[in-house]
Amino acid sequence: MLSQRQLALILVAPGLLLVAALFLYPLGFSLISAFTKPDGSLTLDWFAKAYELYSTDIVFTVVIVLASCGLTALAAIVIAGTLTLGENPWIVGTLKALYRWPLFIPFIVAAQCMRTFLAKNGLMNNTFVSLGLMEPLSAVSYLDWRGIIATFVWKQTPFVALLLAGALASIDRATLEAGRNLGASRVRVLVELALPQVMPTLLVALVLSFVTMLSVLSVPMMVAGSQPTMLTVDMAFRINSYGDYATANALGVITYLISAGAAILYLKRGLSKEAAP
Amino acid sequence: MRILTIACSLAALMAASPLSAQTLNVATAGDQNMVDYVKDYLGPMFEKSHPGVKVVSVGTGAGDSGSQKIYEKLDAQKSSATTDFDVVVIHQKAAGTMVKEGLLAKYTDKVDTAKLVSSESAKNALGADVSGFVIPMFQSQTALAYNADLLKSPPNSFAELRDWAKKNPKQFGYNGIKGGMSGVAFVAGWVYAFGGDADRLIKGPYDPAVKASWDGALADLKEFNKSVVITPGNAGTLDMLNRGEIAIGPVWVDMFYSWQADGKLPPNMKLKLASPGMPGQPMYYAVPEKTANRKLAEEFIALATSPQVQADGIVKKFNWYPGIDAKNLEGKLDQAAWNKLFTDITPSDLAKNAKSFPIAPYFNDILEGYEKKVSN
């Protein structure tokens, strides 16, 4: 007769095996290949090469992802705040119906849409020109770092807003009402009373967005030119053009390290009781 | 239960199909148009002349990375009895590696049309000897596409282009080296123009010390990049030309004509092959050493490189230059189709300025030099 403990182990085994085979094994493999020469001896050559060729791109990646996270947070707070504290039913209803849409659109489709939307003679500039808001000659293309950030923010805002709106809806209305009754404006109620209570959720949502954006290949590839570009593109290029897995893996390890910073935040929040994403 | 039965029979079918030996698997590196070419045009034609044979077309992606995938698959199947692919269509860089590692079969003496091939690239792939292992499917060429309304007299040389771009900021666009081969070709052309001995880079022999002599050219290119637009990919350059956002940029000739034929580029676009020239490259038909259908594969390639198919499929359908010697196409092609290929870029331009890519080690040095000194 199997004990409760053994039974539990058997139930967990398939999942564990899957994680081990599909995640831990490749992870270990790429870690080893990033630190060893073909003959098996330890080396940091691949990191030196990654730094020599891609130091600008490493900085670029971190800046882009951080900036996108910041703007995403701002947009999500505005949306979630309006949904919870908004008093005009028409605005709240429309926003509610619309804001989740980008969640269902894959990154690659979003990137393709942005390519025609943000181009110099693209949909956005053409609309401004035909409305008389802009001279055709002053139109500029946003298909560079700004395009990447715009796509990321557009794509991740609904995700963060969804979690945030849920958290905002579940906090005690009485404190908010009290703030309103004492004469605080809605913005002040949101910033000083509501947000501090849902900060853990916001942080967790941003950490997840951070890791997601760090790993997207299609957007930097399609929206912007290749100089500078994000690390995912460099990894793909190392493998596709040179079959150079070692340097690609070194870049991978650098990405792990960047996301480890975010992961530590996540784990801290996940372990404390108040966060329940 | 029924689902289980269906699943089982499907599995059985899949397990049995390699045994039937009548499926010819053709793997092509290159854009979707190449996959469609085999699937919609060559495949049905071959199936008609070989009843019972089924041609399956697999695409592995555009550019050298597509060939790299084919290489990795053949390499992984090195120790098994047969490979999955029977015919492969590959780029030059991978062809050299595959021949060196014994992954390809020496087959051209069994195919009659091999005698119609005269180009140097059938023997030499970026410095690697590939004679006997490959037949060119087509020859493609990069050139500068420009908007004739915006640019009345296009630059004749890279030096003129450099000065022009300085005076007209953000009017020249190319895709760097990570976004497709037309950008790589432009960078190679730049090094040919300003780096010194182009002939040596194309013909070898390799000397690692040479790359130090490109420092000036690459520093210039970094400066040049400040006044140009980096586009997202080959298609990105054509997109921007089409929208009037740039006036000139390097493109593949075949892609240019196909876009123009589809109405995706306005008719006022023209091509120019500025001196000292830009590289072009062929794609090769090759047969893996361990194919199970060697005879069928050879017959397939014989059909694909026959003058009629080269005329109708390669030149007329895709605006590529033929893989076999052009004089064999005489009489197979109407004059208009032939002339179209040579309107902007004349045969004498081609003779003078159509270059090969540098041999593989220099090629890699140029790409890495670019990453180190220009883009980082």
TrEMBL record, chain A:
Matching InterPro entries: MetI-like, MetI-like_sf, Sugar_ABC_transporter
GO biological process, one term: transmembrane transport
ABC transmembrane type-1 domain: residues covered: 58-266
Regions that span the bilayer: 58-85, 97-118, 148-171, 202-225, 245-267
SUPFAM superfamilies according to UniProt: MetI-like
Compartment(s): Cell membrane
Keywords: Membrane, Transmembrane, Transmembrane helix, Transport
Keyword presence, Heme: no
Membrane topology qualifier: Multi-pass membrane protein
Domain of life where this protein originates: Bacteria
Protein family: Belongs to the binding-protein-dependent transport system permease family.
Name by which UniProt lists this protein: ABC transporter permease
Species: Bosea vaviloviae
From TrEMBL, chain B:
Nucleotidyltransferase as UniProt keyword: no
Gene3D superfamilies hit by this protein: Periplasmic binding protein-like II (3.40.190.10)
Signal peptide positions on this chain: 1-21
InterPro entries assigned to the protein according to its UniProt record, in alphabetical order: SBP (IPR006059)
Pfam families linked: SBP_bac_8
SUPFAM superfamilies in UniProt: Periplasmic binding protein-like II
UniProt protein name: ABC transporter substrate-binding protein
Keywords in alphabetical order: Periplasm, Signal
Organism (species): Bosea vaviloviae
